[in-house]
Specification:
With 475 residues, the protein is mainly beta. The protein is 3% helix and 50% strand. It has 2 helices and 34 strands. The longest helix is centred in the first third of the chain and has 11 residues. This is Colanic acid biosynthesis protein WcaM. It comes from Buttiauxella ferragutiae ATCC 51602. Keywords: Signal.
């Protein structure tokens, strides 16, 4: 799992990466401009080509000074973009051609800046560095393995940035696509939509240590072929969001919160959606294929379509998985210390069909608890997979559950409530506990009952429509 940093400078978390540092402020390069360029001064739109005299960096600088909108024509490739180009506030860059760098180049978007791609508009080994409000990045193609990330959202300035739109971008053959380091500042009203991410070493979207952010929408993305083969630890996730240090009281100021991840189609990766120390969020409408452990083998991350660690108050709804690892919903752990347990969540409309999967894989594995807490799991259908619940929330509801697992792999339903002799037993609810099961069917490949339940000592037990018997209730 990734972890966060509270260093007083712009950086990745201690277990993540060091972003390439900004180059020096651009030095003025003297050159002679044609008369037509001076005549264009004050125009609202102009081609950067008109300012080119052997130095594209200088050409962009002069063009942004001259016009509100600078364009890169379709037949032009601006190369050697190897240092920072700061876009003045309110400027727009329209790209129909190409821009290339060596990994050290970047465009810095300040308040009101836009980078808009037209058909064929592309960036290679250049980072877009968002440092302002009301910024838009739309319609561009990005690639290149030299920079750590294609789009970086962070900076060390303690400020609030609002209304970021990243829409309809394609990122491929790269490390990270979008990386946010959020400890120092705040983002509000962010929409990242309609992306296509493929052949990445790092994450498609990582929102890291984003404890100050509010109202984030990540939706309508295709994520495929994410495979970390470069030996980096914690790389290779589809969409990852993380707060700060785990705390079982779930304080607001330490959690990544108030976000929605929706309408995601993912395939061929180790882990599709990942949340650490989060609260008040929704994950919905996920379609996953071939999420398995053969990808990112040495990255040190769990194999799961959805991985949740130490989170509170969330919903996961309408997830369709085929030949994939299912869910891992587990403790917040640092260096072997169990710091928090998931609580107050609902899973609904979950399907997992591993009938044709030849790899050993988890089904849905959940740890949950705490004195005042609930877990509701409804409308789940799984084939060749196990539903496992560990520890004891105060109120647990299972409704309309149909699971089948092959006998050789273990039970179809496993309920492990009794952790009295385990260090994790401190998270067990003990007062006013409720177990409510309705229409739950757990079978092996022959249709016989297949369950493993260690101990039931809940104060209130309600059951109906079960194909198995509960152990005697211990009071």
């Amino acid at each position: 799992m990734r972890k966060q940093s509270k260093t007083p400078h712009t950086s990745f978390s201690s277990s993540r990466r060091q972003l390439l540092k900004a180059s020096s402020v651009l030095a003025a390069v003297p050159f002679i401009l044609p008369r037509s360029v001076f005549a264009a001064a004050g125009n609202s739109a102009i081609s950067v080509q008109k300012f080119y005299s052997g130095d594209w960096i200088a050409a962009f600088k002069q063009a942004f000074t001259t016009a509100d909108t600078v364009s890169v024509p379709a037949d032009i490739v601006c190369d050697n973009i190897n240092t920072a180009i700061f876009m003045p506030e309110g400027k727009t860059l329209r790209v129909a051609g190409g821009l290339k760098g060596n990994g050290k180049g970047r465009f810095v978007l300040q308040d009101g800046c836009q980078i808009l791609g037209e058909k064929g508009g592309r960036f290679n080994n250049i980072t877009l560095d968002v440092r302002g409000s009301d910024c838009t990045i739309k319609g561009i193609d990005m690639s290149g393995f030299v920079p750590v990330t294609q789009i970086y959202i962070g900076g060390k300035d303690q400020r609030t940035m609002r209304n970021l739109v990243i829409d309809n971008i394609t990122v491929h053959d790269a490390n990270y696509a979008i990386l946010r380091q959020g400890f120092h500042n705040r983002m509000e009203n962010v929409k990242i939509t309609n992306g296509h991410f493929s052949r990445l070493q790092g994450d498609a979207i990582e929102w890291n240590v984003a404890i100050n952010d509010h109202n984030l929408l990540i939706s309508d993305h295709v994520i495929e072929n994410i495979d970390c083969t470069n030996g980096k630890i914690n790389w290779g996730i589809g969409i990852g969001l993380a707060g700060s240090t785990y705390d079982n009281e779930y304080p607001e100021d330490q959690a990544v919160k108030n976000f929605v991840v929706a309408n995601i189609t993912g395939s061929n990766c180790r882990q599709l959606v990942h949340v650490e120390n989060g609260k008040h969020f929704v994950i919905r409408n996920i379609k996953a294929r071939n999420i398995n452990h053969t990808f990112s083998k040495n990255a040190g991350i769990d194999n799961a379509t959805v991985a949740i660690y130490g989170c509170d108050n969330f919903v996961i709804d309408n997830v369709d998985m085929v030949n994939s690892a299912g869910f891992l919903i587990g403790y917040g752990v640092i260096k072997g210390n169990y710091l928090s347990i998931p609580q107050n969540f609902k899973l609904n409309d979950i399907t997992l069909d591993n009938t044709d999967m030849r790899l050993k894989s988890r089904g849905i594995q959940i740890s949950s608890g705490n004195a005042t807490s609930f877990v509701a799991i409804t409308n789940v259908a799984m084939k060749r997979a196990t539903l496992e619940l560990h520890n004891k929330p105060q109120h647990l509801f299972l409704r309309n559950i149909d699971v089948m697992q092959y006998s050789e792999a273990g039970p179809a339903l496993k309920l492990n409530f009794d952790l009295r002799k385990d260090v994790r037993g401190r998270f067990m609810a003990k007062e006013d506990t409720l177990l409510s099961l309705a229409n739950v069917r757990a079978v092996n490949e022959k249709g016989s009952s297949s369950v493993d339940i260690d101990r039931v000592d809940h104060q209130h037990v309600n059951t109906s429509g079960l194909n198995f018997a509960l152990p005697a209730v211990n009071k």
